[in-house]
From TrEMBL:
The keyword Cytoplasm does not apply. The lineage of its organism: Bacteria, Pseudomonadati, Bacteroidota, Flavobacteriia, Flavobacteriales. One of its GO terms (biological process) is regulation of DNA-templated transcription elongation. The keyword Kinase applies. Keywords: Kinase, Transferase. Residues 55-127 form the Transcription elongation factor GreA/GreB C-terminal domain. SUPFAM superfamilies: FKBP-like (SSF54534). GO terms for molecular function: DNA binding; kinase activity; RNA polymerase binding. This is Regulator of nucleoside diphosphate kinase. PANTHER family: REGULATOR OF NUCLEOSIDE DIPHOSPHATE KINASE, TRANSCRIPTION ELONGATION FACTOR GREA.
Amino acid sequence: MKHGSLILEKKEYVYIKSLLNVSEHSEGHQVQKSLIKFAEELKTAIILDEEEMLDDVVRLNSTVTVASGDVWEKTIKIVKPTEKDLKNNKVSILTPIGIALFGYALNDVVHWEFPGGNKEVKILKVTQEVGSENINSII
């Protein structure tokens, strides 16, 4: 892990914690397993103010290119659950891939259990949405 721990912006951290509290009773088994692992990782996360956030960290509204070895490469945008749109590659933070990538940084290799089994994915590119603050889109 590039920065030693997950990196989260303070307001996004609060939002994510509230999502976890609501989602613990409503998501499927695979998502529940991901949520539990994510909640454990959050215990050691580094929480930063907006102006301290690093551009290479995956957060809400980040566009992320990931690859699993030579098997596949995909570009997705991590969004809040109400904005998911798989046709446009907008993936909810409450999906296994959204949870797996959140708080990690460029070039990190993430080991996670996805619906198809344990996978290793590498973050190849992280782009932040230009012209708007991430938190403004979630509160």
